[in-house]
Amino acid sequence: MKSKKKKRQDDFQKVKLKVGKTKPKSDNATNTNFRSKGINLTEQLKRDTSGPTTHRQLGLNDLMSQLHHYSANIKHSALLGLKELLSANPSLLEQHLSRLVSEVAAVFTDKDGNVRVAATRVLRFIAQSVPAERVAPFSPVLSAHLSCAMTHIEISIQEDAMKILDVLLEHYPALLAARPAVLLTNFLELISHRQSSGGPKKAQDPKGRNWTLSVNPNRTVTSQQWRLTVLLRLGRFLLAVVEERPVEESDIFIPTDGVFGSSGEGRLIPLNLNWEELTYSKVGVKVYEHSGTKPTPRSTFRLRPEVDTGPAVGEDLDSAEAVQSFAATLVPLLLEVWVEASTSDCPGNNTEGAHLLSPDAMSVMFQVLSILQLLRKLAPQQEHQDALDAWFYKEYLGDFKQHFMKNFPYDSRDTPRHRKKVDLKRSKQTAVVPVLTVEPLALNITLCQVMVSLSQRQGLGRETDGDWLTPLRTFVRDTLGSGVKLSYRQLHMLLGTVWKMVLTQRTKTVTDDLLAAVYVYYKQRNLTLQTRSLLLSFYSKLYLQEQGHTHIARSKVLCRWLASLPVQLSQLGHRNPALSERLILSIQAAASRRHKDLLKSLHTNACKLYDPQEGVVVLLPAESQQRMVQLLYFLPKMSQSLLANLSCCCTTGRISAGLAASLIRIVHFRSSLSGWSVGSQEAAVEDVNYISFLFSTLTGFSSEKLASLQEVDDESILPPSPLSPLSLYSTPMEQFTHHWDVVEEVCHCLETLGSKSQCFDIVQNGICKYLIKLGVVPDSMAAGLLRAVSRLLDLSVLPIEPVLRFLSQCCLSLMALLISLEQELPAETNHKREAIWGACVSALSSVPRLLRMVLQLMRVGDLSEEELPQLGQILSMLLQHTPIHNQLLANAALLQDIIQQLTRYSRGATREQWLTDLLYCYSVTVAHGSSARRGSLSLRDMY
Amino acid sequence: MAAPLEVIVSSDSGSQMWNSTVFDLLSGSSLLSYRGGSSSARSLSLLSGGYLLSAQLGKNFINVWEIQRKDQLQQKIVCPGVITCLTASPDGLFLAAGVAEAIYLWEVSTGKLLSVLSRHYQDVTCLKFTDDSSHFVSGGKDNLALVWGLSSVIQLDLNAPPEPRHILSRHSLPITDLHCGLMGAQARVATASLDQTVKVWELSSGELLLSVLFDVEIMSVTFDPSEYFLFCGGSDGNIFQVSLCSQSLSREKSFQSDNDGDTTFKGHRNLVTCLSVSMDGTLLLSGSHDETVRLWDIQSKQSIRCLAHKGPVTNAVIMAAPANMFLPDSRPAVPLPRFSRHLQASEGGGATEVCVRPALYTQEVEKTYMQKADRLNLLMNAVTDKSVFGDGENTKVRVSELEEEVQTLKKVNKDLYEFTSQLLTKPT
After folding, report:
1. Domains of chain A: total
2. Quick one: closest CA in A to B216, which residue?
3. Is residue B396 domain-resident?
4. Domain limits at B379?
5. What is the DSSP track for A204-237?
6. How do residues B384-408 score in pLDDT, each as one tens digit?
7. Could you read off the pLDDT of B257-275 as tens digits, one per residue?
8. Predicted ipTM?
9. Helix, strand, coil in percent for chain B, rounding step 5
10. Residue A80 is assigned to a structural domain of this protein
11. Domain at B62, CATH number
């Protein structure tokens, strides 16, 4: 028993621990003496294969999952990482766009501010690098999250939603504007709250409005500033919606490309069809769809399902009713905002009578007005817009008059400096509010435009709008007339109001008043091109509107403006072709309508405009030149000096030959000799002047030029010699061809004058009077004269002796020139040679006397040694030309004489080639001629 | 001699003896000539097949002949000014004349002046109706061509003066001629102008379809009936043929000879003032200021006939020969009233009744094809219904008849069977 007990004691022996002694090791103690070493497994250290990572080695998937983390810091860093990753690897963006967008959009409503800021940054980055059409599929997701954020109960999230909206509006305005309904409701909810329907208030409110402006005291900014931010976004959003609308017609005074007033490009597109393909029905073609009477309806078919629209604002803004109902909700709110802004700072009139406003209030008001303006434009079609205007007029004219017009000319209060500093500091602290400075001018102009758009055409049974339009008119007039610097946009808006007022007011005094103010502005010196052309197109459009508006047609200012156009055109010169083009278009429009003042002014300035040296017609580019030439048609009278100028224009070569030809034809049409006349339009050109115009154009050189040519001693003038009795001034190639083309046209005009013989008489007289005494003659003129003579001469008329002598001299000189031209550069002068030869030959064949005189002029005895071969060549060329054989044979004796002399003088020792050729040609011609004669003789014998 | 189908009617400004002459299109022989005065350009027109009208050159009246009485004027219509152009609607109900800037429109049946349209700023040069008389187009020296809907013009609404349906304002110099194609309101209109272009428009929408730029001013223009070609008479005497069905389609083109079917007819020496194409599109008639009228074969581009005149040709047109042109004893179907010179103001309230009668074939509402098909179907069904089913009494008789027939047929069949079986089982 004891042993057993002892044994038990052995088992459970108590170990005594003593203080100060080390504790004995227990039996089951682990020996920790070993050392461990890490083993690196290289496979595991490989990077994440799924894709690139950030500098923290986090891949896209990691970051995505971190976005769902509870910790705000993790989420923040994940967003930062996302941005880094995406900017380093843009390809990721394309692969994972759907996930990215949905995940990032999900944190729009995150509770932590930093996270939201980071999410906005990532969104901006995505927006910058992905085009709109690729984001289009995700726009429902985006807008759902956006509206979630906008309607969030937490105020800071709402505020940040504005920034997200900013990003989206900047980059994808079209996507947001595609379904505006939900967002518009959200906007309303941001600044107001809906009252529970069925309450007693609704019954009280006469207009049944159930939205009221809300004030939230918890915001960090004042409610006015908050409203400003919201309204700013709303304005931008509406602008995006408006810009999405199909453009129906261009703005009132954007310059159109068409001639005037007509729509620039047609809506029809030419279609290229192949009959074979059509018959095998490879392509189906709808030839007549309403036969073009209606524009093709834009298809509303969409592949993507439409998001269910909110019940508040009707369906979409596609119908006029929807717009109207939205406006009915929004306008009262805007009015409230306006009232609040105008009363928030103490009203005070200064001495000038302008109402003073603080900058904040001013910008709020500006936003209110610009939203009103956009609301008007929201109407889908033009007729809807008119209906909407009428509706605005009916519903809100009273309110607008009461609130907007009460203190109409607004001005900014001149705040003392120290307050401005405080403002600056405050705005730095609360960076939420964008610092916008709105000029009072802009505010006033916008107000004008909103109010004027309301004014209706005065008809029967409507009270006049004059009372409230008067201050507006005064303002517009003063602004334009006082020479204030206006930006292009402001001027555009002002002109729009003027336009509307002129069209609706329909009284002469108002029209003249306003137009005079515009004219004052127009006459300022230093306007930019854009502004200038805007004003120009304003006036010309207004002028084109005159039909049916007698008050516009009779406006003195408009007449004065039109009358000043030719002067402006001549003063402008070549400095600004684009502006000149617009001026010419306006002038042409008025001239075609036979505007008296303009025609008078054009008549007085015509000589200056068509001056051959510095007139507009030679300075401007070709297209404007053509218009200037066409303008000639409308001139009531063409004076002698103008015709002289025109003739110079034609001949000096600064307008193309084709244009010169059409100029000549236009003068022809305006003469009494043209034969084309409809109605009782009297001829603008007297016959005498017309003929002298033609003659001077035919000669191609002015009398001064010819006179100076006589004296000049230049190497381009060949001295006279026995072979070329006149010394020829060789014109440059271009001038020669130009003159040749002009001569053809002049000849055609002369031919159609009527009696050919009289016509030739006139030309003959002209030659006799002015040209015979010349010693130096330009070759183009000589050729032209010969050409004209051969075309105009009837066989019945015999030219007088002095003219014939002159012409024969010309002819011989030209042929000598021809020989000398042949020796040098045959290729370049080809056209010239052909022209000269043609002119000579046709003249020689049509006037037999001329040939005789030319032959008589060939006095072999006077020729020098070198000239003999030339004469020989001339003769052989003539002999080879069959059409004049008969006439040559008629002068056979003379010819024989010349040839005998030639053989004698050319020292018979070495018979040269040219002489052999000549003799051969001569013998062939004579043989042929004699055989022909014999034939005819034998024929005669037979009878 | 059989009466010709188509005739040439031409007039010139120089002839003393007669005003306008009728030639046979095929033989070129002169058939008739109408006496009295001389016609001004673009004013010769045929009114409802019974009257020939032309404006006197430089005077303010219109000469009217009954088509069969060549030597006597039926009446003179006096106008307030010199008539610049004249046309009658193809259905013979309206007459339009350009007098200076204004267009005068008369109703032929009563002679009333329906309206005076003064939308042009300068003289009206040409007027043309569409072939269904629903619209007309006017061209003027103010570079404009206006398309008017006849129905809107003749509504006498004094508050709103009639507005043109379209304003074609792309020319930059006066319009010299215009031509209206076929197909009523869906026609295409060609306008020629001194600005050296010819423009083709769609009448219904006022769209510019084609603009062709030439080297010279164009004085006259026409289509062939199928609108394969556009013919343009130039101020230099050439006639340009522009192919409208070429492959290269562009809105603006410039004329180049021998380029996809564009060619030139050469022969005249002065302005070509009038052009006309025959009904079958093979012959082209051109009148010119060189005092000739030429007839061209379009296929070969040759001048096949040249008819000399005494002065510049003012009118030359190929028209279908009216039935009673060559019957001296006939009378026009409708008498022509006196034409009034002034717009009748509404005196006495309802005194101004305007009788607007649509053309014959538009009076009855045309049935649609569906209705026609329905009716046809009904007729066919009625025939079978009657023959097969008949009415109630006949049915029983019919049924018994049919049963009897079935019986006989069965009997015949049985006989046939027995006969064949006997034939087959008979031992050979």
Report:
1. 1
2. A662
3. yes
4. 369-425
5. H-TT---EEE---TT-SS-HHHHHHHHHHHHHHH
6. 766 655 556 677 888 899 999 999 9
7. 766 667 889 889 888 999 9
8. 0.76
9. 15, 40, 45
10. yes
11. 2.130.10.10
